[in-house]
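quick one, 246 residues, struct below
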Amino acid sequence: MDPPEEGHGTVLYVETGSPAAQPDDPRRVSEGWVEWARAGPSLSLILPSFGRAQLLPGQRQSPPPQSGPRSPIPPAPRADQFIRRAHEFKSQGAQCYKDKKFREAIGKYHRALLELKGLLPAPGEQERGSPAAPQPGRLSEEQSKTVEAIEVDCYNSLAACLLQAELVNYERVKEYCLKVLKKEGENFKALYRSGVAFYHLGDYDKALYYLKEARTRQPTDTNVIRYIQLTEMKLSRCSQREKEAM
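---
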């Protein structure tokens, strides 16, 4: 590297935390040394190869750059906004179901439930006084009822969508229906679909229990009556096999 031209400054060699070395110092190219820098009226700062920049006598350290005004933090969405969006997704899911677009309907119902996530405390959390997730705000009694109604509709509709598939996931159908029954123990659709799910999962005792519970709500429903007959036939065969095995 060529030295500076005469009259344009002086070559200095500096090590962080050490006094300036002479230009002919053999250590000037060792690690941690600045090879050269101009020092003159127009330049008085020498940058080391490591550590903080060294200031020459008479030089003032530049102030840190001033940051601009901070943009205001947007307010958290209110509970009614989550509820409104959940209702919109639920309505879109219902339309997809009517159009026999069951996969799209499932996606819409899941989006609706996602909007409501955290608005209500998980079971048991309210008693301990530690909500499962930060809540946008305390729900009014009317809002709580609306949230639960949307959840019940979504889980019931998800079970209905799954029952339309060629290969039905009866385990998931059972899961959704039991979620409904935890909130509404006398929900006819959830009782009936729980019975259907347990029947196809081979748990005929539970199937018969839920189907009979559904029949008490709607005694003339032909689907309920048919599944009760099928379940009783299965139980009769199982009982006969047990007797033969003894």
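Helices lie at 79-98, 102-116, 125-128, 141-162, 170-183, 188-200, 204-217, 222-245.
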